[in-house]
Every structure is written in structure tokens, then in C-alpha cells.
Amino acid sequence: MEATNVYSMPRIGDSAPEFQAVTTQGTIHFPSDYKGKWKILFSHPADFTPVCTSEFMTFGKMAEEFEALNCQLVGLSVDGLHSHIAWLRTIKEKIDWKGWKNVEIKFPLVVDITMEVASLYGMIQPGESNTSAVRAVFFIDPQDKIRTIMYYPLSLGRNFDEIKRVLVGLQTVDNFGVALPADWRPGDEVIVPPAGSCGVAKERMEGAESDLHCYDWFFCTKQISKEEVESRLGKK
Ligand code: BEZ
User: Fold this and answer.
1) Domain count of the chain?
2) Do 26 and 133 have their domain in common?
3) Whole-model pTM?
4) 60-88: per-residue pLDDT in tens?
5) Contact (Cβ atoms closer than 8 angstroms) between residue 83 and residue 111
6) Is residue 9, in this structure, part of any structural domain at all?
7) Rounded CA gap, 139 and 41, in Å?
8) 167 CA to middle of ligand 1, Å?
9) Residues lining ligand 1, Cβ inside 6 A
10) Looking at the annotation, which residues are catalytic?
11) Do 126 and 4 contact (CB within 8 A), yes or no?
12) Distance from the CA of 136 to the center of ligand 1, in angstroms?
């Protein structure tokens, strides 16, 4: 039987694995260079490929929205520094996609020729490719804990609206101590922590907490306005 490599994968709740790497913005120490910030570490399979180009242009266009959310973007592929630089220059100087031109990528793009970082984060998925990182996205909080992980295959570009929604959602969970229902957006109802006793369950169903709406004793929500949610986003 052919031997297969087993790569470790950090999980939700783990501390983000540390690494030092050369990037298009100089050497970085991850995650310690970004103390007190949210971090999105994302991998792409290869420079000079169409899906990746469309993704980088989208992240480049949205960079200020992520900055406003106190979030540092860090990209990664297993290509070398000169390839990264040439690709980012091509994107800025030549690519006109969706009417977007002159898109400048200012966040660091990690050089990972040895696949050390990709292996550390489980971004190499042998079923998809042994030599390229898949489209992984790690959401890392200001305490450097991994909070959400997404994986997409090589052939499908990511949904950047969803990436931003996840970041906004995680910050809202932390800011208000709530959970968020399916497809939640700022201004939608939020889920309050479950009743911790039979007494509280009964009270809730009898309407004792007037700001709650209970669909049943275990499923109670309250309203937090869009303005209130947004006023607390990106705060340290
Ligand atoms: C792309 O980004 O277009 C791509 C990258 C690797 C394999 C297939 C497509």
C-alpha cells in the first residue's frame, strides 16, 4: 500500500500555530505581530490562476472594510516571493475584472515554498492536491484562538460576503454574549443563552422577561438593533 502523509490540523478553539515567514510586506511573525486584532489567514492554491485572481481582487477591494473591523488579512500560497510580487503587479496593472482596475493588494502574502505553514495549518489536503494549499480560511480572534475554519476546493471561489458576515457574527457573539441564528445579519433577532433551570424556563414561557421572544422554552431571542451591533464592531 502506498504511504500517505498525515497532516495535523488545528481545530476551532485551539491557539493559532505560530510561524515566521517571508511575505510581500517583509518578514512577519504570526500571530504575534497582530496583537489585539482579529486575523484572517487564508490560503490559495497558486499565483497566476483565474479563481485565485478573482478572490484576491475581491479581498483587495474589501480591504478597508476588514480594517474597519480591526481585522488583519494574511494570504498564503506555496509559490515564491518573485512569483507573488509579479502576480500582484499584474493584478494592479493589467486586470480589469467586474469593472475593478488598479486593485492593489496591501496585505501580506506569505511565501510558503516548503509548505511548512500550509502543513502546520492543514491547508494541504491530499485528496485535492499534494502540492497546493486548498482554499482555507482561518478566523483568529484577538486572543489568538481559532474561531472558525472554512475549506473550499480548488475549483470554487469563496464567498467574501460570507467571510465578512462570519467576522461580524463572531464579534457580535463576543460583544453581546449571544448566539446567532441561521443567515443572521446585523439587526436580526439574536438567541439568548438557554434557560439554566426549570424555573427560568417556566418564567420565560410565562413572559416574565418582556424583552424576550420565546418560540419554546429552549429557543428564546431578543432584538439588538443594527446600529447597536455596528457601533461595537471592530472595537478592541
Ligand atoms: C484557480 O485559481 O483558478 C485554480 C487554481 C488551482 C487549480 C484550479 C484552479
Assistant:
1) 2
2) yes
3) 0.95
4) 999 999 999 999 999 999 999 999 999 99
5) no
6) no
7) 7
8) 25
9) 45-46, 49-52, 154-155
10) 52
11) yes
12) 13
